[in-house]
């Protein structure tokens, strides 16, 4: 009985990790960049948003995250180098992923700034609605990325 219980736990953990990785990738590949881009020397001041007040309902916040996710994925699809390093990072140990992402975006600062602009509506919504729009691990990565 213990063997089956242990096996069940191991399988459940593996499936849970796989689902979590896929969910994280689906939420926003660009958000992962934040977890490792904090050491980038360059940063720009956030420009005030001229957009109308966001829809602060749960559906409105989810729509913002979904829209930003789609935009980030489209951007990465058009930038194969960035896409490759981001997708590879999902399967790497954190330290290795951090180093690879940091090196890539240090060498390609315009892509960093482009993604930062794409991701900005999440922060606008969070500030204006006083909510956290992302799961804790992605929220932390997002905040670090946006800080430069």
Description:
α2 crosses α4 (80-89), α4 (80-89) runs antiparallel to α5 (94-107) and α6 (109-129) crosses α7 (136-147). The model is unreliable at 18-49 (pLDDT under 50). 76% of the residues lie in helices and 0% in strands. The protein has seven helices and no strands. The chain has 148 residues and is an all-alpha fold. It has one domain (2-147). The N and C termini lie far apart (52 Å). The longest helix has 26 residues, at 2-27. It has helices at residues 2-27, 29-37, 58-77, 80-89, 94-107, 109-129, 136-147. 28% of the residues are buried.
Task: Give the arrangement of secondary structure elements.
Layout lengths: L1 H26 L1 H9 L20 H20 L2 H10 L4 H14 L1 H21 L6 H12 L1
Helix pairs in contact: 2-4, 2-5, 2-7, 3-6, 4-5, 6-7
């Amino acid at each position: 009985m213990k063997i089956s219980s242990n096996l069940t736990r191991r399988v459940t953990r593996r499936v849970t990790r796989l689902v979590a990785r896929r969910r994280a990738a689906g939420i926003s590949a660009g958000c992962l960049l934040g977890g490792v881009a904090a050491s980038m020397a360059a940063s720009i001041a956030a420009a005030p948003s001229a957009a109308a007040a966001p829809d602060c309902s749960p559906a409105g916040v989810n729509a913002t995250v979904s829209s930003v996710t789609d935009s980030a994925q489209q951007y990465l699809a058009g930038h194969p180098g960035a896409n490759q390093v981001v997708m590879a990072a999902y399967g790497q140990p954190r330290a290795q992923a951090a180093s690879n992402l940091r090196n890539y975006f240090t060498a390609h600062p315009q892509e960093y700034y482009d993604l930062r602009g794409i991701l900005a509506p999440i922060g606008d919504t969070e500030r204006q609605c006083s909510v956290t729009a992302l799961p804790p691990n992605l929220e932390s990565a997002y905040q670090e990325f946006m800080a430069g």
